[in-house]
Amino acid sequence: MYYMAILKKYRLLLIFLGLSALYLFTRLYNILLLPIFTDEAIYIRWAQIAANDPNWLFISLTDGKQPSYVWIAMYLIRMVEDPLLAGRLVSVIAGFFTMIGVYLLTNELFKKRWIALFLSLLYIIFPFSLVYDRLALYDSLVATFTVWALYGEVLLVKYGQWKVAVWTGVVIGAGLLTKSIANFSLILLPFSFLLFDFSKKQRRKRIIKWILQAGVVVILAQLLSLIMRLSPYYYIVGQKDNVFIASFSEWIANPFGRVIGNIDGLGGWLLTYLTIPFAIVIVASFLNRQFMREKLVLLLWFIIPFFALAFFGKVIYPRYLLFMAMPVLLLGGYGLCMLAGFLRYRAVQAIYLGIFIVSFVVTDYYILNDFNKAAIPQDDKGQFLTNWPSGVGVPETVDYLKEQAKKGEIYVATEGTFGLMPYALEIYLGNNPNVTIKGFFWELQDGAPPPEVVEASKKMPTYFVFYEPCGPCKVVGEAPPSWKNMEQIFQIEKEADGVYYTLYQVKY
Prior knowledge:
Blueprint: H1 2-9, H2 11-28, H3 38-52, H4 68-79, H5 83-110, H6 113-125, H7 127-132, H8 139-159, H9 162-176, H10 184-187, H11 203-225, H12 235-244, H13 248-253, H14 259-274, H15 276-284, H16 292-312, H17 322-340, H18 346-369, H19 378-386, H20 394-405, E1 410-415, H21 420-429, E2 435-440, H22 451-457, E3 462-466, E4 486-493, E5 500-506
Parallel strand pairs: 1-2, 1-3
Antiparallel strand pairs: 3-5, 4-5
Helix pairs in contact: 2-6, 3-4, 3-5, 3-21, 4-5, 5-6, 5-8, 6-17, 8-9, 8-17, 9-11, 14-16, 15-17, 16-17, 20-21
């Protein structure tokens, strides 16, 4: 009886510890299974440079990217030997806080602890979050700040505490230091007013108070984002945003030119991650009138960003959906629990919930063990594994070049000056005094390698890496056929047909 009392008293803590252990297992198991890919190489290299030189704390702004991911990664890089692992641990940590945020937000919205615990479990096994909580990208961090911003806005409209206004402003400000898309947390702030309790006394006074507190949230968030103005490169953020998002003048010239294609792409990607049965449950969650305002707020936090991206998005990827998938995950989880309540026996309820859990777990198994077989969007497979942006071949190249550098100085040329190459090699070989790394792009022409490469090959062992499409290259990942004196060291064909990663030695 004594032990049962102890278990009952600490049941919530024990469940939380169990969920934490499951989360860490799913995120850390085989975390280096996928090779480094293009964007990861960029962000990790920035973090390395910032860690070694404080003058480059805002290095990400040189490419129009906000700095918060780099700031966190640069500290982990100092403590973790493998830079790729350090970079991916940022997302692991971010996802852990998202899981906690999902629990708190669900508990506040639906007032049932067991539903909140179930949603935490659902977040852990959700294939979309599993993929991105294991990659060195900004998106898990954006999802974290989104969930916590929504939680803060819900608390603010319900309880009207000034301290909540302050930390909500700080959370949103941190999101703005991560990605411009975090502006949706401010855009959607007025919609939290749907949760305002008009039945309580002093209604007018409480409305004015909420308006003032909402103003504090906006001001604090914007003030925090002003940190980026300390860098002379801050203006590039706006330029970079215009690469991916249409300006109003561009949109008004052709308002419906992108929307059909974008909805098809975004909807297909999201449906693949959610699965059709789970999407049906999301819709079914509105069959119950209970918590209708709360569900409407969650729906708006998905619909508004989704259609904004559909109308204005110029370049889109599945990962842009991650932050807006969090509200629909909560809707789906609530819908599952609501429908389970109609079943009479607990055993039947468990089987019903288990079917949905298993459908996610099967996909999770392949994500963790055989990524190419996982039921996820083909565009993500191409980015991370099967096509030219993936770093298939990088580990073999690093190992080979390390061995060659032990014998003396070597020169390494790469196809590309920004991205996977040369950054992936600089991450692991940049501090090696025997290795010189130089990227080339416009210099790649028919006829012969760049003169600098030819000259280097006469003095020391010289290598050239090819991995992406280029003008004179007839095959993706191979040197132009007119180049002479190129001895192939090894070649790896990626899962996409006709896409290669090739390491050559240049011999003149």
